[in-house]
Amino acid sequence: MLAMGADELSPTLRRATNWCLERNDEIHQIPLTVDNLAVAAQRSHKAVMLFLTGSAYFECSVDLTPGGELTGAVGSEPGCGPETGCPVWSSGCCSPPPRWTAARWRSAVGSVSRVRRLVLEHGDGRQTRARLTNGAFGLVSRGDVTDRAELVGYDREGREIVRQLLFPPDEEQDRCYTAPDGTVVYGKADQDCRPAEPWGF
Predict the structure, then answer these.
(1) For the whole model, what pTM was predicted?
(2) CA–CA separation, 101 vs 113, rounded Å?
(3) Which long-range contacts (CB under 8 A, 24 or more apart) does 27-35 make?
(4) Residue 105: how many CB atoms within 10 A of its CB?
(5) pLDDT tens per residue across all 201 residues of the chain
(6) What angle do CA 127, 129, 133 make, to 5 degrees?
(7) What's the CA gap between 85 and 79, in Å, rounded?
(8) Among residues 136, 99, 140, 96, which one has the least CA distance to residue 122?
(9) In what order do the strands lie in the sheet with 184-186?
(10) Adjacent-strand bridge partners of 150
(11) What 3-state DSSP class applies to 4?
């Protein structure tokens, strides 16, 4: 199940979204409402969500196992957003690195820049196409994926402009990115920082 924005939420995803917003209020206190939800993906009892504002993003994963209390994890970058810039790989694909859930199938959410079509190549010849809306993407894989799975982005002319492993090495996930004025907008300043890019779609 995939929802590109609050208008497409199922009752289950709306419950998960409310849980995420409550965790944000308790922990990160980024000014967010359900209208800031960019994308939500659910498969079985696992869900992932991405909220975007002009200058921040907030991500959340939720376990929706029936009969139990909702549990999950949240993360954010308060200075990172479409207006301030964020980590975007040099060819302009995915920011922040995608998150996934469950054992073999995968769901991924994130943001894109200059990408008009995005597919997940499973690593065995099969593909799942992502949905793109207002610079955000979401997908739930159609079947299992392998460790060789890659996200592949194409520009408006259909040219491949980025190819990225779905499971990037730890050093890639821990990169630091800076705005043009040198302000760190993602990661830690003591890392090898790269320039962030404004988002465009």
Answers:
(1) 0.69
(2) 24
(3) 27/74, 28/58, 28/74, 28/76, 28/78, 30/56, 30/58, 30/76, 30/78, 32/58, 34/6, 34/9, 35/6
(4) 18
(5) 889 999 999 999 999 999 999 999 999 898 999 999 988 988 888 888 888 887 777 888 888 888 888 888 887 766 665 555 554 332 333 444 443 333 345 677 877 777 889 898 988 899 999 888 877 888 888 777 887 888 898 988 999 988 888 776 654 555 677 777 777 766 677 667 777 655 443
(6) 165
(7) 8
(8) 140
(9) 184-186, 176-178, 193-195
(10) 121, 165
(11) coil
Structure tokens belonging to residue 57: 């993003």
* Cα–Cα distance for residue pair 60/75, rounded to 1 Å: 6
Burial class (CB in 10 A: 0-12, 13-18, 19+), 35: exposed
Per residue, what are the HEC states of 48-87? EEEEECCCCEEEEEEECCCCCCCEEEEEEECCCECCCEEC
Closest CA to 28 of 3, 54, 56, 50: 56
Residue 3, CB half-sphere, CA atoms under 13 Å: how many? 24
Residue type, position 182, single letter = G
Main-chain phi, psi angles of 154, to 5 degrees: -125, 150
